[in-house]
Amino acid sequence: MLYFDNAATSFPKPVAVKKAVENSFFRFGANPGRSGHRMGMETAKAVFECREKAADFFGLPETENLVFTKNCTEALNIVIMSIASGGGHFIISDLEHNSVLRPLFELENRGTICFSVAKTFECEPEKTVRSYENLIRSDTKMLIATGSSNVFGTKLPVAMLAKLAHEHGLLFLADMAQTAGTESCDMGKDGIDFICAPGHKGLLGPMGTGILAAKRPELLKPHLFGGTGNNSLFPEQPDNLPEMLESGTLNVPGICGLSAGIDTVIAKGTENIAKKEMNLTKELYSGLSEMKNVLLFTKPPESGTHSPVISFVLGDLNGEETAALLSEKSVASRGGFHCAALAHHKMNTEKRGTCRLSIGVMNTEEEVLKLLGIIHALAKKY
Amino acid sequence: MKEYFFLLSSITSAMKGEGILRKKGFRASVFRDTNLNPYGCGYVIKAAGEKEKMEYLLKSAGIRINEIKESR
User: Domain limits of chain A?
Assistant: First the structure.
């Protein structure tokens, strides 16, 4: 199989990740932060080491403010629900994923908050920033931006938007679902208040892992209550991070795998990974752009303005049909609407959808050439 | 050298504190002890050295200490 669905989850995972997961069942089989026996403490240590590593990766000095979640969506929900609890106005981009749009939509329907959608401009970061700025109101609380569109690979100027937010005394949340692991990030330097990221995409960990990194932890509120392994005699949910937001047993095998995934990313270097992925993406885009009956939706990809994601359709087919044809040729892509209603409305693809090809660090030039050959042959027929 | 028990609520804080003290040359270890820690399921950093200095280091790192007990 040719795997080009890395925006959904990276595949294959590095051998070190698989080994770390397997090893966890032997060495770290106890419940961390619960029992005081040796394996319990060793498991807690393994979790702590991953927490420390991930916090460091995002430039967060306070290890305890790095919270493990089950995915990026959960992390985004925690932040949005916390900040929205006092009402107010939010601004998001027209490329946001449903994991940002839906909680805000739900809260708006409940009458809790309201939100505006800022128009973004491909390769024009200043215009995008101005677009956000024009929507700021006296009751605006937070700006939210995806690092990159999961459908079209269009990057947003996260650091510039964080600066804008702080100039207006607002909070800034970065959804790094598509960029964590391929883009270096320093929360302190970039002025990001909250980062939400999956553990299983660019960070190369297993599915079922996510991260919330908080520079403003005092604003967060628990949305899941229960056992945390501390203050057990009190009925109140503990108010300290990370325990306050980590009720219930943690995904230890996943966290151990994530730890190895982050090690792999650090060893390879985020810049090297991004460069490799972008070179392959450019090659793929260039090949596709020369084919008749292939419709592309974005400008030629460039690092800085695009992530390694290309959306296209073949002839008169829709995204699902295009992806189904590729699947018949053992190519893994993703067709349809990619849980991103806003992005498809923006690009006028809400009827046809698109077929998304997303490149990961494990892809090779050979695979890209094979893929181009397959699409070239299909394009002649449709 | 005197030994102290720093009683904490969080395993994460305990492990963070252990690392901070060790980096500064203190002998420190973490364990769970509900006898020492009356707050219910707590953690203890056992460390030897100057109490005030260790307390300062832990608090400077944002670690909430519930209580400090001297080892007997």
Answer: 15-267, 269-381
